[in-house]
Design brief:
Helix content of chain B: 25-40%
Bound molecules: iron/sulfur cluster, FE2/S2 (inorganic) cluster
Strand content of chain B: 5-15%
Number of domains of chain A: 2
Largest sheet of chain B: 5 strands, mixed
CATH architecture of the largest domain in chain B: 3-Layer(aba) Sandwich
Strand order of the largest sheet of chain B: 2-1-5-3-4
Number of helices of chain A: 7
Oligomer: heterodimer
Shape of chain B: globular
Radius of gyration of chain B: 25 Å
Order of helices and strands of chain A: HHHHEHHEEEH
Helix content of chain A: 40-55%
Structural class of chain B: alpha/beta
Largest interface: A-B, 17 and 18 residues
Number of domains of chain B: 3
CATH superfamily of the largest domain in chain A: Glutaredoxin
Shape of chain A: elongated
Largest sheet of chain A: 4 strands, mixed
Number of strands of chain A: 4
Structural class of chain A: alpha+beta
Distance between the termini of chain B: 43 Å
Chain lengths: 158, 574
């Protein structure tokens, strides 16, 4: 598993964000959003401050953070590589494309390459079933992929 | 409260308004299968195994969550209901490892029982078993998240009953699983290792760390002198491992069975429970008379100790420095006992039979080696001992009763009640009263501190000196009490805490299944044991008097300090 390089987290900043929202009902989601905006993702040290500040258990905070697909509990790479794994892509051979991607990037879903360039992620549908199997990198969609062409696409971002 | 009449499978029942369909069905004698439902927990309604037909309702309803209404017509046994339940359970099974034969919960598993009850023979969905790593990071528990069916029962127990919150559902959809934050190993999180989640879990996703093999090896080793100690609560629960009803006392049969397993000496943790009373009682009197830190908090429950180290490190000076009876026993077995009987302490191997998973962690703490060796070598839970009896072909119930060996097997009724919430307090009061007032205590039964009430309080008159005491069991109750103390409320002098609901009889290592109703029956057995004992006060135990004369000197003396007392370690709060 790709283990992220530990950077010191600005806990004072996290505490400030918690203090701002603490008194309101349902503070957790806005706090998580703001912490992620500041830090890029939700590292353990930051969520520990959130848990202490809001009087919640860390496991609960983590549970909520991992329930929403827009929160990241591991560092994100420079480019988000999103792979569609819905049925139409699946029948069009998405699995081979996925295998090729995993081989090329050397990470599995939810992980970031050690050089910090790519984060691989599964999504349920990209809405481009006509060109299945499809992959989205940042906001560009690539369709009709094969195990070979997907590697070529990745090369463009190297 | 008003009543409501409804019809279940054609039979009319009347139940209080606000009841659920499940409760009404129970009253009507109709069984509805459940899985996420637990009798001691709030409604979750997540598994949908309990679905029933409610007339005029478009979809099937979860009986455990759906409230009854006047004139409601419920059917629990229609083709649609049977099929829906099967589909729900088959979907679970399609994601579940097929490991029953090698699973610690085989034959005691609610999912397995449910599959049988519903008559499932094939799973109509393609198998996509979860394949997640097992967590064996603690000496106490093994988590196997691949077996987790996300029923959330452990989550309820860990957060609501134990106030810890080490486990929570993470991720979503197919990937949802109940884990510690960031999938951290259990040894790195705030878990107390109490093992209450094991009782909550319907399946084998959380089990005790099995150490039986190490004990078999020691028993087979002719070089080793293997002694066993049995915790106060075991005699009131072990019978359940042999199929006897909850609340059966099996003291003499347990001793006989342990001898059959091959232990060289069968001793009793009750002996060191009496010793704990001498040491802790003296510590209390010392703190009271010298202006020491009060209230004094008891220290016998290792789940509680780990909890306070995490959550209230500022209160650690309040915790009694007494080791738990288990650890006192280990330290004495490898010093006093070895010396007295001329046995090389390096060859003494101490096994303890405990109600508790946290005891495994306690025995492994680095400071627990005051004998010069690891004081307690292996800790087995009552479930593991039951397993060993079965492997050895010992038909426990048919054995004649036998007596513990001397001298570490002599004990009192005061020690026996350590097994139930309030017992340590009551035992301490029996002794403190007589030591302080120098008068004989007339009524030995301090009933105010007994029973399942969350927090119990009493004021005891020690001949003019008023002693305010409190007792809490279950860590959420302990937390509540610690918050009161932190706020300066209560003016307590002495506080007993047990990590597990009901005390050790409800410990995380006790037989499956442990519910509050079962706990009550076991508590009754504990007080029967107390009444049965010829001596019921710790300071009257002749073997205790002897050990002070021969070896320890006096309570809180130098030897005691070295062998029987300990210190604590503040830990992370999150
Ligand atoms: S948890 Fe239950 S169903 Fe699953 S393998 Fe174990 S015994 Fe079988
Ligand atoms: S052992 Fe106790 S504290 Fe730890 S997860 Fe289980 S219930 Fe929670
Ligand atoms: S670990 Fe057990 S109790 Fe907890 S959610 Fe999973 S199956 Fe339920
Ligand atoms: S038992 Fe009713 S929903 Fe789980």
């Amino acid at each position: 598993m790709a283990r992220e390089v530990k950077k010191a987290v600005d806990t004072a900043l996290v505490d400030k964000i918690v203090a701002k929202h603490r008194t309101r009902e349902g503070a957790l989601l806005p706090v998580l959003r703001e912490v992620q905006d500041s830090l890029g993702y939700l590292p353990q040290e930051a969520l520990e401050r959130v848990a202490l500040g809001l009087g919640l258990s860390l496991s609960r905070v983590y549970g909520v953070a991992t329930f929403y697909s827009l929160f990241y509990t591991r560092p994100k790479g420079r480019y988000m590589v999103r792979v569609c794994e819905s049925a139409p892509c699946h029948v069009q051979g998405a699995q081979e494309v996925i295998d090729a991607l995993i081989r090329e990037l050397g990470v599995s879903f939810g992980e970031t390459t050690p050089d910090g360039r790519f984060t691989l992620e599964k999504v349920s549908c990209l809405g481009v079933c006509g060109v299945a199997p499809a992959v989205m990198i940042e906001d560009r969609v690539y369709g009709n992929l094969t195990p070979e062409s997907v590697v070529a696409v990745i090369q463009e971002y190297r | 409260m008003s009543n409501v009449k409804l019809t279940i499978n054609g039979t009319q029942v009347e139940v209080p308004a606000g009841s659920t369909i499940l409760q009404a069905a129970e009253k009507a004698g109709v069984r509805i299968p459940t899985l996420c439902h637990h009798p001691d927990q709030d409604i979750k309604g997540v598994c949908r195994v309990c679905v029933v037909e409610v007339e005029k309702s478009r979809t099937l309803q979860a009986a455990c969550a759906f409230p009854v209404a006047e004139g409601m017509v419920v059917r629990t046994n229609t083709p649609a209901v049977r099929e829906a339940r099967k589909v729900i359970v088959e979907l679970m099974l399609s994601r579940h490892p097929q490991d029953c034969l090698g699973c610690a919960r085989n034959m005691k598993c609610e999912l397995q029982a449910l599959a049988q009850e519903l008559g499932i023979r094939d799973v109509r969905f393609s198998r996509r078993e979860k394949d997640l790593p097992r967590d064996t990071s603690t000496p106490s528990l093994v988590r196997d998240p691949s077996k987790c069916i996300v029923c959330r029962r452990c989550v309820y127990t860990c957060s609501e009953v134990q106030g810890v919150g080490a486990l929570f559902p993470a991720y979503r959809g197919h990937e949802a699983v109940v884990v510690p934050a960031y999938d951290n190993p259990m040894i790195d999180v705030v878990c107390s290792l109490c093992g209450q989640c094991v009782h909550a879990c319907p399946v084998g996703a959380i089990t005790e760390h099995d150490d039986t093999e190490e004990v078999w090896e020691a028993l087979a080793d002719p070089e080793k002198h293997v002694v066993v100690q049995t915790a106060p609560a075991i005699r009131a629960t072990l019978g359940e491992e042999a199929g006897l009803p909850a609340g059966t006392l099996v003291t003499g049969k347990m001793v006989a069975a342990l001898r059959r397993l091959g232990f060289d000496r069968v001793f009793d943790t009750d002996f060191t429970a009496d010793l704990t009373i001498m040491e802790e009682g003296s510590e209390l009197i010392h703190r009271l008379t010298t202006g020491g830190t009060l209230p004094l908090l008891t220290s016998c429950s290792p789940g509680w100790i780990k909890f306070i180290e995490h959550f209230f490190p500022e209160l650690l000076p309040n915790v009694s420095t007494c080791k738990s009876p288990q650890q006192m026993f280990g330290a004495l077995a490898k010093t006093y006992y070895a010396e007295k009987f001329g046995i090389d302490p390096a060859k003494v191997f101490v096994v303890s039979i405990m109600p508790c998973t946290a005891k495994k962690f306690e025995a492994a703490r680095p400071e627990m080696n005051s004998s010069g060796y690891r004081d307690v070598d292996v800790v087995l839970t009552s479930r593991e001992l039951g397993r060993m009896f079965r492997q050895a072909g010992i038909d426990f119930d048919r054995l004649e009763e036998e007596e513990f060996d001397k001298p570490l097997g002599l004990s009192t009724g005061a020690a026996a009640i350590f097994g139930a919430t309030g017992g340590v307090m009551e035992a301490a009061l029996r002794t403190a009263y007589e030591l302080v007032t120098k008068k004989e205590l007339e009524n030995l039964d301090f009933v105010e501190v007994r029973g399942m009430k969350a927090i119990k309080e009493a004021t005891i008159d020690l001949d003019g000196t008023k002693l305010n005491v409190a007792v809490a069991h279950g860590l959420a109750n302990a937390k509540e009490l610690m918050e009161r103390i932190s706020r300066g409320e209560g003016d307590y002098h002495f506080v007993e805490i047990m990590a597990c609901p009901g005390g050790c009889i409800g410990g995380g290592g006790q037989p499956i299944r442990t519910t509050n109703a079962v706990r009550e029956q076991r508590i009754d057995a504990i007080y029967r044991e107390d009444r049965r004992m010829p001596i019921r006060k710790s300071h009257e135990n002749p073997a205790i008097k002897q050990i002070y004369e021969d070896f320890l000197g006096e309570p809180l003396g130098e030897k005691s300090h070295h062998l029987l007392h300990t210190h604590y370690t503040p830990r992370k709060r999150v």
